[in-house]
């Protein structure tokens, strides 16, 4: 029995691989290394470099490694890129997921965990936002994930196949043991950008919009520590293996922090002021996005251990320091 983790060399996938291996599971990572890193995969995991949408390859892996569950992280995640290259995003996210699901069903894999996103909601009408809210993505990225959710629902109705789709809110932070973290050079996420600015790798941090209808005028998000997110995946896996039915769950903590709150937390961790510039709003940013978390707490045996913005900021900063030391050594 082993778990296939697609995208296991990437940010969130690598934390899932660590969580699985920490509890002694056998893991097969399938990653094309387009944005992931070989070094992010522990030596003791089986790393296969290839496409998650390669049905034949996945079929072989299922047989060879006796895979009983798939956690599907592989995909493209840069929202503005999805606007300029929608068909690329529908290919990497939707078409690939279809092929992976087909291989799973043909190979008798009944348990499937899918990395979905709060972007399926688009601009939330009210917060916290529950799973039953209207799905109205405002980017091809969000649509590509929503379409995969639809395929999962239909496939689960037709086949001996159950899934958990986890809708991630703002994932941040790094492995507390320093083994992995957000390593994509092009990442534009707030906490990573703030950490890089605090370390002097960027001259300044732009605050995108200070005139929102929020407590301090900046956008509010529900930041979840990547290690807690990986733990939610483990609980989802256990539930599916125990025969649990298909379900869609938000992944967040159910509380929001503003851009200014985040900057203050990173400043505290770095013990330095961050040079910020108040900039215009970024297109497509909803003012506030906070997860409704009743369902995840009711459904999974999940107890977050890192619900602390200071800890999230400190771990992200520590990881950024680690990446810098690798760069400087190279
Ligand atoms: N943000 C910002 N400056 C940055 C990056 C992000 O002000 O350099 C803001 C962004 O407008 C949003 C919040 O921080 O309101 C979180 O953005 P991020 O890109 O981290 O995640 P998103 O919520 O877009 O998925």
Instruction: Provide the succession of SSEs.
Output: EHEEHEHHEHEEHEEEHEEHEEHH
- For the CA atoms, what is the radius of gyration? 19 Å
Contiguous runs where pLDDT drops below 50 for at least 5 residues: none
| CATH T-level topology of the largest domain | Rossmann fold
Shape: globular
Describe this structure in words.
With about 325 residues, the chain is α/β, with parallel strands linked by helices. It folds into two domains: about 1-170 and about 225-250, NAD(P)-binding Rossmann-like Domain (Rossmann fold), CATH 3.40.50.720; about 190-220 and about 255-290 and about 300-330, UDP-galactose 4-epimerase, domain 1 (Alpha-Beta Complex). It contains ten helices and 14 strands. The protein has helices spanning about 10-20, 55-65, 80-85, 85-105, 140-160, 190-200, 225-240, 260-270, 295-300, 310-330; strands at about 1-5, 25-30, 45-50, 65-70, 110-115, 160-170, 170, 205-210, 220, 225, 245-250, 255-260, 275-280, 290. The strands form four sheets. It has a seven-stranded parallel beta sheet, sandwiched between helices. Helix 1 packs across helix 7 (about 225-240) and helix 8 (about 260-270) crosses helix 10 (about 310-330). The termini are far apart. About 50% of the residues are buried. The model has no long low-confidence stretch (mean pLDDT about 95). Uridine-5'-diphosphate (UDP) binds near residues 170, 193, 219, 282 and 285. Uridine-5'-diphosphate binds near residues 170, 193, 208 and 221.
């Amino acid at each position: 029995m082993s778990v296939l983790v697609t995208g296991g060399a990437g940010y969130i996938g690598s934390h899932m691989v660590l969580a699985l291996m920490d509890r002694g599971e056998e893991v097969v990572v399938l990653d094309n290394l387009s944005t992931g890193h070989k070094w992010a995969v522990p030596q003791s995991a089986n790393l296969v470099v290839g496409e998650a949408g390669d049905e034949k390859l996945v079929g072989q892996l299922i047989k060879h490694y006796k895979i009983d569950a798939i956690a599907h992280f592989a995909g493209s995640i840069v929202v503005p890129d999805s606007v300029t290259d929608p068909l690329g995003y529908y290919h990497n996210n939707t078409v690939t997921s279809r092929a992976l699901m087909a291989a799973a069903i043909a190979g008798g894999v009944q348990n499937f965990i899918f990395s979905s996103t709060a972007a399926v909601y688009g601009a939330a009408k009210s917060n916290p936002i529950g799973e039953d809210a209207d799905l109205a993505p405002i980017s091809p990225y969000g649509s590509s994930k929503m379409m995969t959710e639809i395929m999962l629902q239909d496939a689960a109705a037709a086949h001996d196949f159950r899934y958990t789709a986890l809708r991630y809110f703002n994932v941040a932070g790094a492995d507390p043991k320093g083994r992995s973290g957000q390593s994509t050079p092009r990442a534009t996420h707030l906490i990573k950008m703030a950490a890089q600015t605090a370390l002097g790798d960027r001259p300044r941090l732009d605050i995108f919009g200070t005139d929102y209808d929020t407590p301090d005028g900046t956008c509010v998000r529900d930041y979840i520590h990547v290690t807690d997110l990986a733990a939610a995946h483990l609980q989802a896996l256990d539930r599916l293996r125990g025969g649990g039915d298909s379900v869609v769950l938000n992944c967040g903590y159910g509380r929001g922090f503003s851009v200014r709150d985040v900057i203050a937390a990173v400043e505290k961790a770095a013990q330095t002021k961050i040079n910020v510039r108040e900039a215009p709003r970024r297109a497509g940013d909803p003012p506030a996005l906070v997860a409704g978390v009743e369902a995840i707490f009711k459904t999974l045996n999940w107890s977050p251990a890192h619900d602390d913005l200071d800890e999230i900021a400190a771990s992200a900063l520590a990881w950024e320091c680690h990446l810098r030391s690798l760069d400087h050594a190279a």
